Amino acid sequence: MEVSKTRRGLVAGVTYTVAVLFMYRIGVSEPFINALVPTGGYLLSTLSLPFIKRWWIKHNF
Prior knowledge:
Layout: H1 5-26, H2 31-34, H3 36-60
Helix pairs in contact: 1-3
């Protein structure tokens, strides 16, 4: 479970930067916008995983 907002922000920033550089290098159109997809996925996963974990434990243990 990710609890540090600073760490979450840094990981999201690094993810966005690496995605932009990679997409720019391979010639993807609009890499600055398209790099939001993996970054958004990371941020959503850090928000939803604690809920899913609690649900899973409640229903399976």
